[in-house]
Amino acid sequence: MKPLLDIAAARVFFDGVFSTPRLAHPEGVAIHPDGSVWCGTETGDLIRIEADGSAARLMASTGGFLLGIAFDAAGNIFACDLKHAAIFRYEAATGAFARFAASGIGVPNYPVVDEARGVLYVTDSRGNNNIGPGVFRYDLASGAGGVWCEAPMDFANGCLLAPDGSGLYVVESDVPCVSFVAISADGSAGAVRRIAEPVPNVPDGLAFGPDGALYISCYEPSRIYRKKGDGPLELLIEDPKATVLAHPTNIAFKGSKLYTANLGRWHITEIDLSGLDAI
Predict the structure, then answer these.
(1) C-alpha dihedral sign at 96, 93, 78, 183
(2) Alpha helices of the chain — where are they, by DSSP H?
(3) Is 56 in contact with 39 (CB distance < 8 Å)?
(4) In terms of DSSP bridges, do strands 37-40 and 214-220 run parallel, antiparallel, or are they unpaired?
């Protein structure tokens, strides 16, 4: 499959190998309303990068290992921590960064804010070869909650709320596929169906682009796919050398620019999609 974009469309947006703070193998990435790019690292650091990539600042740290991160409408950020097996919340108004929820989750991987329902969905990767319930749900105000989707999943990873709020798209990295979990009228988990399979070889993160297509990042090999509606998977971009695109995990859009965390290195990548059709 030939990529839609040459690797030249990607560049290192912020190189954190020797910066202070250092971008120690970032896993999560999210865009703040002011255009700044936030990420989490393997040392538990929550880092804010200026919108133009000119500088970075340490906002807080758990001392653990941050995985997925997500903003709510107020600019607070939810961060999954592997070491602490918990979700932390960074308060935009005070700068406090404290444990928000756990309730038995094993490997909290990626958070999704559902403001309309007042809840936070979090995938539980559980670990390799440990198939079981893959999505928890917590009250946004109190942090109370537990298992939401009882359907067995194989390494639930990146997650995304449908634009119309009808369900969740969930990566199952070890299948490998993207599944869709319907949200019933009462808020409970409905039927689960696979909407993209296979996604070779290790899908990780998800994002909707400005073209309405679903973008799927792969930890291995270092590539990103695009899926438009019910159409087939298209290979968007690939880096065989895993240098500019280095085992991308989570992804986030800012206009026609796609940003990726790179668990394999020490930088955030920016991919210019302005030359792509339908954008």
Answers:
(1) positive
(2) none
(3) no
(4) unpaired
Torsion of CA 215, 272, 261, 131, to 10 degrees: 10
Which residues pair with residue 241 across a beta bridge? Answer: none
Cα–Cα distance measured from residue 245 to residue 265, given in angstroms and rounded to the nearest whole number: 9
pLDDT over threshold 90, residue 226: yes
Contacts of 136 (CB under 8 A, 6+ apart): 103, 105, 108, 121, 122, 123, 124, 145, 146, 147, 148
Q: Tens digit of pLDDT for each residue in 262-277?
A: 999 999 999 999 988 7
Residue tagged 């369900």 (tokens): 167
In angstroms, rounded to a whole number, what is the distance separating the alpha carbons of residues 222 and 224? 7
Average pLDDT in the chain: 97
Confidence bin at 278 (pLDDT 50/70/90)? low
The structure tokens listed for 129 are 């070869």
According to the model, what pLDDT value does residue 276 have? Answer: 85
Instruction: Report how far apart, in Å, the C-alpha atoms of 106 and of each of 86, 129, 276 are.
Output: 8, 14, 39
- First-last CA distance in the chain: 21
Are 268 and 23 contacting, i.e. CB atoms less than 8 angstroms apart? yes
Q: What is the DSSP letter of 231?
A: S
Rg (CA), the chain: 17
pTM of the full structure: 0.97
